[in-house]
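Example record

The entry below shows one chain as it appears in the dataset: sequence first, then structure tokens.
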Amino acid sequence: MTLHSNTTTSASFAALISEPNLALAMTIASGAGKLLLDRPDDLQVQTKSTATDVVTLMDQRAEEFIVAEINKHRSDDAILGEEGANHNGTSGLQWVIDPIDGTVNYLHEIAFWCVSIGLVEESTGQGLAGVVYVPVLDQMYISSRGLGAWVIERGDSRKLKVSGCSELSQALIGTGFGYSSTRRASQARVLQEVLPNVADIRRLGSCAIDLCLVAQGVLDGYYERGVNAWDHAAGELIAREAGAVSSGLFGNSIGVDMIVVANPAIHGELVAILEANQADQD
């Protein structure tokens, strides 16, 4: 992705994109996106945990590309990737990558898939930098801890801020569904309790994009059970840097049991509904 001469300039944006780890992640994500847009006719689709949990040849190629680029520049860092990359490091930093978040969308040529690259402190899991790149729309969401969150679109940049929605009844909430029939049945049960209490629900098929839309103020909140570190490592940092609150349920941190990310005004009420319906259990 190239920034054009008409890019909005500011001291905060300049500081953000000059941060070395973020700049590297941006370059790698852009390269992976270019690779993924050049789709072969045969995606060599395979299944993983269930018949609906798919992986393509391009998931694997993109992860190989990302890992190779990280190793070229940051060989001492650890790597955790959805498609099997699991490298130990000595620096205390870990790259958490999802080469295609939204593989089903990618397979069906729906625009809402992305490359997600997050950098975290290995000991704490705290985010340091995050990039979510949506190649079809040429949108790159970026953040570095303490430096805010921005979106770069068609060469122009814009700072992100969560919505000002103050009533859960007026909120547009994103969510997602798991791959097993048991998990989906539980999520459908919870959805029946959430839906009457919000303006509407959206299910776009990519956790990382959902989190960026919370950061952008397009969605007012997002929740999901069963997402992994590579799904949210970049997007959750982007949302928090844009003013969102993130948590699990019952005082827990975000994790595979539950992630809830929303603007501060509605986060607590959304969490309360999810807790009342034991949304962190199947």
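Notes for this example: The chain has a mean pLDDT of 94. Helices lie at 11-17, 20-37, 57-73, 103-107, 181-194, 207-216, 229-241, 264-276.
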